[in-house]
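Data card: per-record layout.
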Amino acid sequence: MFDVIVIGGGAAGFYGAIHMARTNSKLKIGIFERGKNVLSKVKVSGGGRCNVTHAEFLPHELIKNYPRGEKELLGPFHRHATADTMAFFQDGGISLKVEEDGRVFPESDSSQTIIDFFLSEAEKLNIKIFKNYQAKEFAFIENDCLWQVTTKNKHYYAKKLLLATGSNTRIWKQLEQMGHTIIDPVPSLFTFNSDDPRIKGLQGVSAQAHVAVMPKEQYNTNIGIELKSNIAKEPALVSEGPVLITHWGLSGPAILKLSAWGANLLHDHRYNFRIIVNWTPEYSTASMFEFLKHVKEVEPKKTVLKGQAVEVPKRLWGKLVKAAAIDSSMRWADTPNEKLKNLAKQLTACSFKIHGKSTFKDEFVTAGGVDLREINFKTFESRILPNLYFAGEVINVDAITGGFNFQNAWTGAYIAARAIATDD
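The structure for this 424-residue chain is written out next.
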């Protein structure tokens, strides 16, 4: 018999259990993890360094990083957010550092530092950890006002249940059968697949760019025949930031933001769509054409290939020059304006056909889960079932990459823990 059973031995499960035990030392708490290892997602986060949160300390700014959950998280972030998360780890003896892009990591650059801390705290607080304990079923027994959790061959009972199970379709199905509404999950963080020859062989090249996902009716059009045509239709989604060329296509923060904000839209399009990349965001196609004509006047004897006119990676410049049908030996002086127009379009309105996606590393994130209307965000308790609480990705909240998904897990787990531990 437990006071609380936590299903899910990940970030949210441990954070919640620790805060429960700290708030009320009399609670008997058990964490049930279906796998042989706990905290596996923490292990791979941030390339094995564990991106614990993001250094955005204002709740109204922090919520802007959540495509789903933006409105609902404002109140919770006023109660427990980035500064509280950082204090939690720092008070536990873990030194943290903030990188230039705002991501927060342990100074050790090792996720094992976080894992060891969680395990040490759990042991110190007498939290029981059960590995290879898959919760096959859970049910509320009304007469006894208890939750029954069934594993492979045994029933366990608890007064309260915290679900921190992440994107677990089996758990979602059970919740649906018990009356909850589940928003169908779709991938959220992923990269765009493209075999376009302009990026072939450029893996590892990164550039600051503006990226637009074009509306469906525009996917099969020839974008950019005229200088003004690239603004004829408003894009469905836009993002700006680093774009990384990979073996399979395009990745990097700008692409991952689009995948998060457009998770449902891109899923509806079966991941076949067109994007327009401006490799020089400070220029429009028209202003780039004027600039290239100026370069033609001041650098007449240099070849276009070697006389690079703008700050983009050198290998990318070479590919775009070739795509504009400019010969490698052609000098600026000999380049006709029509080809300069082509180059301007390649630099500012570079159209790519996307055909599929690839999961972002091991950090699989989904949009979907328990309908947010069925959760009390003052306690993270179910509005449908008594003494049932949620934390993390089990609910329909997800974020862009950069530590924001973990912050959602920490915040929900903390608020649920406080509600559980202080409830008479």
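Known properties of this structure: Residues 219-232 have pLDDT under 50 and may be disordered. The longest helix spans residues 404-421.

See the next section for split statistics.
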